[in-house]
Amino acid sequence: MTGRDIAVGPIILLGAPGAGKGTQAKLIAGHYGVPHISTGDILRDNVSRRTDLGMKARAVMERGELVSDDLVNAMVANRRKQPDASRGFILDGYPRTVAQAEFLDQELEGAKAPVVISVEVSYNQLLQRLTGRRSCPVDGRIYNIYFQPPKENGVCDVCGTQLIQRVDDTEEVISERLKSYERQTLPLIDYYSRQGRLRRVNGELPVEQVMEQIFRAIEGGAAAANSE
């Protein structure tokens, strides 16, 4: 049996900026053949297609306001009912609040409960991953001065261009982003822990080992859901 033979159901990925969630979402999607549903992607898709929800969201964003839970919930509900999500799907960036999690539980009532995976990386490791990022403005190649430095300090290995650091990759900005994530996500961690749904994986291991932990968590959760 391959990953694509398994009906995995809903998968929720939780993880701070820099935890490697995006990388793992791509690996999960490829292995199990299920869509990666990002709230940012579905928001942009609805706006570009000028759906009713998209036009409402666009009006909100043009006023400089945050898109409401009701709009985001409706977009996620529509997206998860599309044919490619029939065997399962990965939610990335949703739910962000306990209210969204409660809506999702109601939406999934009678279907498989989600497997919730928290990719956990220490604060100091996250700081190094994010503040250490440097990129080549010419070819887009990414380096990290702590984990994957260029051969010559500050210079792209391929084209010799001076590497740059993004403005929002400074320690002050990153530190605030991580604190904000923690404040926002801790209630979700508690919510899913109380349900017995939360699976914690060590995100500091090499990518392949993190992936293996996640696959075990998904298949264990899918088996439990099938037996309920």
Question: Characteristics of this structure?
Answer:
14% strand; two-stranded antiparallel ribbon; alpha/beta; 7 strands; 8 helices; 228 residues; five-stranded parallel β-sheet
Question: How would you describe this structure to a colleague?
Answer:
By secondary structure, this protein is an alpha/beta fold. Helices cover 48% and strands 14% of the residues. The chain is built from eight helices and seven strands. The strands form two sheets. It has a five-stranded parallel sheet with strand order 2-3-1-4-7, with helices on both faces. Strand 5 and strand 6 form a beta hairpin. Helix 1 packs across helix 8 and helix 6 packs across helix 7. The longest helix is centred in the last third of the chain and has 25 residues. The chain is globular and about 55 Å long. The two termini are 22 Å apart.
Question: How many β strands by DSSP?
Answer: 7
Task: State the strand order across the main sheet.
Answer: 2-3-1-4-7
- Measured as a percent range, the helix fraction is 40-55%
Morphology call: globular
Number of helices: 8
Arithmetic mean of pLDDT: 90
- Poorly predicted runs: none
Report the major sheet. Answer: 5 strands, parallel
How far is the first residue's CA from the last residue's CA? 22 Å
Strand fraction:
5-15%
- H and E string: EHEHHHEHEHEEHEH
Cα-based radius of gyration, to the nearest Å: 19 Å
- Class derived from helix and strand content: alpha/beta
